[in-house]
Design a protein that fits this description.
alpha/beta, Rossmann fold, seven-stranded mixed sheet, SRR1L, SRR1-like domain-containing protein
């Protein structure tokens, strides 16, 4: 990590690039040329351990938009173009494992087990997990850290679910993910954690023929709408970790008719996740807001018994 710190220290002034654009006559100073040369040397030494893979691309993936003709795709890339770095596979895997260890020792996870996971266990024998909208795991940004923490919690949930499946009770737990922003490197990281990347995402309209967990924190409203619309007669099979549905059913978001009916008629219960302050202020803590406004959404107990 010391070498990585060297890279950061040796990076040229970000204003330098802008200055050269404004005045093409200016040339890099002797000091800047030395810095660039040292940076290139360190990058060559670290090849295979930490790849900068610098490229010009949008700095933010502001939102997903649903287009009926094109399906689920990433639209509206906004913001200034910046130089972005990518974690190597090894570093990304280490960070996800680190986030998992961080969660395990946190007050947040202790409360999660008591309030959220205990409710998941009540649902029944879940043997399929589908995760939508996780985000990139390899981009060196704040959003990437959020994705890594969210995946870390998912991995802990998977471990608990696997321990609850009794030997001889059918197939093992199947875990699948999809996000249109996934790169080839993201998919390789997920494979290392034995998670399969879906090739058919159905724009969220995944039919739950048996009890299933859908892990969807911070997804767009159309995905929740598509999921619940496809399972209106099978609500008892749906266990969703996602945003509070009420936020999608007021004002301009009232176009989500299925969600509006669920909320209005009180067909599902939404159990709020623990307060993010319990995550603490560490590298994987509350500052990244991985679980703000996140709930466990399931059919009400009395309704599921009918």
């Amino acid at each position: 990590m010391a070498d990585v710190a060297k890279i950061d220290a040796l990076k040229p002034d970000p204003c330098f690039t802008e200055q050269t654009k404004q005045n093409s006559v200016n040339k890099p100073s002797r000091k800047q040329r030395r810095q660039l040369k040292k940076l290139e040397q360190i990058q060559e030494q670290l090849e295979g351990e930490y790849t900068t893979d610098i490229q010009v691309e949008s700095s933010t993936l502001d939102e997903y938009q649903y287009n009926i003709d094109k399906g689920w795709s990433v639209m509206g890339l906004q913001g200034q173009k910046t130089l972005q770095e990518k974690y190597s596979l090894k570093v990304a895997q280490q960070r996800i494992t680190g986030a998992k260890e961080y969660l395990l020792t946190s007050k947040y996870y202790a409360e999660f087990l008591g309030t959220i996971y205990s409710r998941i266990k009540d649902i029944g024998n879940i043997k399929q997990v589908v995760c939508y909208g996780l985000g990139s795991l390899t981009q060196n940004t704040g959003n990437c850290v959020t994705s890594q923490v969210q995946l870390a919690l998912l991995l802990l949930i998977i471990e608990n679910l696997k321990s609850n499946i009794k030997q001889g009770e059918g197939p093992e737990l199947q875990v699948s993910v999809y996000d249109p922003v996934f790169t080839e490197k993201d998919e390789l990281v997920l494979q290392r954690f034995n998670i399969r990347v879906l090739t058919r995402h159905l724009d969220g309209a995944y039919e739950a023929v048996e009890p299933m967990l859908f892990y969807m924190p911070h997804c767009e409203g159309f995905l929740y709408e598509a999921l619940y619309q496809a399972n209106q007669k099978k609500l008892e099979n749906l266990v969703v970790i996602g945003n509070n549905l009420a936020q999608y059913t007021s004002g301009r978001k009232s176009k989500y008719l299925t969600l509006a009916e669920l909320v209005k008629e009180n067909k599902v219960e939404m159990v709020e996740f623990p307060a993010e302050k319990l995550l603490g202020k560490g590298d994987y803590g509350e500052k990244h807001h991985p679980f703000n406004d996140t709930c466990l959404i399931a059919t009400r107990r009395e309704q599921s018994k009918v």
